């Protein structure tokens, strides 16, 4: 029994040491974003802003076309997420509940997309999107990014766990294959839909390289490109950069706080290990 | 499954074998037709996207890698010229070596960090787990660009918190931005910091799946915490470890946004990684043919890494 207390102390200390490592950079960043520009670099540094201000935020919002970036990013993230859910759910269901040689072959093809990511085929992909007339459009950002092995396999693993009897019963009742999927199977997979929704939203919200390749017109820029353009400037305006960065994170943080449990309970390695 | 249903129905009715088999085959044909159309329809959207945005670019990318295409006009065939040039391109080698160093540092760091976080989150001894879990997860929400900015801010040479603390403790300002190796270290830390959350979740799930009976038996034998971790936990979560290492490796090999935000591959071009090299040649200099060749070398590398890790994993199992 006397062995237990030191263990508790050690484990708790180690846990909170790690919490500090992961939390302090963000905390320092957040606190700094409330400092006026003059205070950011004045020594000695203080933990809390002496004169808290939101001028960094307002300046970021007005000096860049921030509301437009927000709107564009929202359009990309929402539409990509909706399409991702539809394609992943249908495909995952087919891979789980039907057996054909070409379905098994396609399963392997989908797995291969994780090994050979989009970055590797960046320039030819760009040419195709350009030839399809999607260059400089948000549709061009969305279209190539909706196919995801993680999403497809999340649904596949889930539908494998749905008893076959349910499907057989629906068939005996004369329900068509597609209507069985839409009326019975899809509602069952609600937790997976939520998990993939938040994951996909995060992916697309935070995407950088592909939007950068496709979008050339500042009116179509997404948030990440906007923020990166502040970082890339000769003299970084830290006050604006801090404000812009924090603003760009808010939507995701809100969504995460609401839908936490769907991420925390997800088996993200679904399908990749057997 | 679909085949066994009619068979047992035939047996129950005690119909002659011939009729049963005929009915069975007829039924199978009908079912077969029906079940071709439905799954085909269900996978059609993914299949179309896969062909359009994955197979097609891969094929034309391979094609262009044998040409000197610039994105417009004709694509003169140059044979293996691009690949030969790559072999002699010092900038390419520098990017490749830098990428390998980066990956070799990020993977073990991410592995240790995410496994430690998971162990501490599952441990019955630690306190404050719900809060800790949320904080560990915050970096997942932060985009690579913003993560880069956060670490650049904390490691600023003249204004960063880290140098301020070092100076306050009597040390000298460390050139985090102007020294190439120190600069890379920041990117490595930021990368491991950013990829911990997802891997930690996988480890938490895996550790929770280890049967508690193993630990109880080991306790009876007088095994300590470390022995239990080493001989029960680690072997039990080996499949997850494999996935984490594989995915982190593949991910690190194609890092771009993070390093762009931390130091834009600088100072100078010293920390240019492969994707930056490909991006610069392909889009800034419009040498699509040459960039395609570099892409295929990267793809080959990723495949070799994936296959090598699979083989090592298989061998360990047997």
What does this protein look like?
The complex is a heterodimer of chains A (274) and B (318). With 274 residues, chain A is mainly α. Chain A folds into 2 domains: 4-57, no CATH class; 58-264, MetI-like fold (Orthogonal Bundle). Chain A contains 14 helices and no strands. In chain A, helix 4 (66-97) packs across helix 8 (149-161) and helix 4 crosses helix 11 (190-206). Chain B contains 14 helices and no strands. With 318 residues, chain B is an all-alpha fold. Mean pLDDT of chain B is 84; it is low at 1-33. Chain B folds into 2 domains: 4-64; 83-317, Orthogonal Bundle (MetI-like fold), CATH 1.10.3720.10. Helix content of chain B is 76%, strand content 0%. Chains A and B meet through helix 1, helix 4, helix 5, helix 6 and helix 10 of A and helix 2, helix 4, helix 5, helix 6 and helix 7 of B.
């Amino acid at each position: 029994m006397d062995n237990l207390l030191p263990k508790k102390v050690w484990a708790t200390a180690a846990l909170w040491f790690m919490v500090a490592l992961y939390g302090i950079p963000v905390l320092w960043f957040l606190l700094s974003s409330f400092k006026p520009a003059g205070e950011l670099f004045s020594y000695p540094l203080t933990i809390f802003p002496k004169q808290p201000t939101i001028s960094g935020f307002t300046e970021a919002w007005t000096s860049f076309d921030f509301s437009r970036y927000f709107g564009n990013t929202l359009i990309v993230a929402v539409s990509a997420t909706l399409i991702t859910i539809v394609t992943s759910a249908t495909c995952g269901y087919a891979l789980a509940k039907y057996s054909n040689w070409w379905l098994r072959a396609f399963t392997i093809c989908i797995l291969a997309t994780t090994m050979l990511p989009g970055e590797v085929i960046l320039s030819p992909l760009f040419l195709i999107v350009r030839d399809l007339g999607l260059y400089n459009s948000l549709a061009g950002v969305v279209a190539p990014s909706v196919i995801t092995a993680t999403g497809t396999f999340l649904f596949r693993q889930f539908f494998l766990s749905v008893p076959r009897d349910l499907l057989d019963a629906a068939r005996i009742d004369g329900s068509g294959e597609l209507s069985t999927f839409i009326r019975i199977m899809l509602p069952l997979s609600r937790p997976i839909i939520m998990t993939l929704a938040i994951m996909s939203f995060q992916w697309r919200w935070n995407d950088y390289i592909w939007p950068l390749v496709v979008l050339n017109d500042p009116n179509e820029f997404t948030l990440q490109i906007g923020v990166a353009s502040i970082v890339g400037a000769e003299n970084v305006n830290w006050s604006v950069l801090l404000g812009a960065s924090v603003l760009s994170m808010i939507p995701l943080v809100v969504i995460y706080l609401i839908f936490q449990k769907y991420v925390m309970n997800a088996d993200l390695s679904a399908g990749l290990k057997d | 499954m679909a085949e066994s249903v009619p068979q047992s129905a035939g047996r129950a009715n005690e119909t002659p074998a011939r009729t049963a088999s005929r009915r069975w085959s007829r039924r199978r044909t009908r079912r077969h037709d029906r079940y071709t159309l439905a799954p085909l329809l269900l996978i059609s959207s993914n299949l179309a996207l896969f062909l359009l945005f994955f197979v097609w670019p891969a094929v034309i990318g391979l094609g262009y890698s044998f040409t000197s295409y610039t994105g417009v006009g004709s694509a003169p065939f140059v044979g293996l010229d691009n690949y030969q040039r790559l072999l002699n391109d010092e900038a390419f080698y520098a990017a490749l070596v830098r990428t390998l160093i980066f990956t070799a540092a990020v993977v073990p760091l991410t592995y240790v960090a995410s496994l430690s976080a998971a162990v501490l989150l599952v441990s019955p001894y630690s306190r404050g787990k719900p809060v800790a879990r949320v904080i560990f997860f915050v970096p997942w929400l932060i985009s690579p660009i913003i993560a880069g900015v956060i670490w650049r801010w904390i490691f600023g040479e003249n204004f960063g918190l880290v140098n301020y603390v070092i100076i306050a403790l009597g040390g000298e300002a460390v050139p985090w931005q102007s020294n190439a190796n120190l600069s890379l270290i920041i990117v490595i830390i930021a990368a491991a910091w950013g990829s911990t959350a997802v891997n930690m979740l996988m480890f938490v799930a895996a550790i929770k799946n280890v049967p508690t009976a193993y630990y109880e038996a080991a306790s009876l034998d007088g095994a300590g915490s470390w022995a239990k971790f080493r001989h029960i936990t680690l072997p039990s979560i080996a499949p997850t470890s494999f996935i984490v290492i594989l995915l982190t490796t593949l991910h690190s090999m194609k890092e771009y946004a993070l390093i762009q935000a931390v130091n834009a591959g600088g100072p100078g071009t010293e920390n240019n990684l492969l994707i930056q090299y490909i991006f610069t040649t392909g889009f800034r200099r419009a040498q699509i043919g040459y960039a395609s060749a570099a892409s295929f070398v990267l793809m080959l590398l990723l495949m070799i890494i994936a296959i090598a890790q699979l083989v090592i994993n298989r061998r360990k199992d047997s």
